[in-house]
Amino acid sequence: MCEAVRVDLAVRVEDALDELPDAGRREVLGTIATVLVRRDVWPTLGSWEAAVWFGRRCWVVFAAYPDGIDVLDLGWAG
Question: pLDDT band at residue 6, thresholds of 50, 70 and 90?
Fold first, then answer.
């Protein structure tokens, strides 16, 4: 059985995704997908803490909640 999780993107994250080339967008979205399944790397749920997770050429900053994550910022160095 697959558990549904929520992903909310900050407005600046949505804007940044729109500006990335296809390869960058795919890499960032893949990194977000990795974060979703790696609950062991999530910061304390519902706290003011955030975490950073790195992909091959990108990074995402996120906060965690019992039902998913909020992506607060991202970067791509491609």
Answer: confident
Q: Would the pTM of this model clear 0.85, i.e. be above it? A: yes
- Residue 6, class by beta-carbon neighbours within 10 Å (0-12 exposed, 13-18 middle, 19+ buried)? exposed
Mean pLDDT of the chain: 92
29: β partners: none
Of 43, 44, 66, 45, the C-alpha closest to 53 is 43
The residue assigned the tokens 């950073």 is 52
CB atoms within 10 A of CB 7: 14
Residue 8's nearest CA partner among 43, 36, 44 is 36
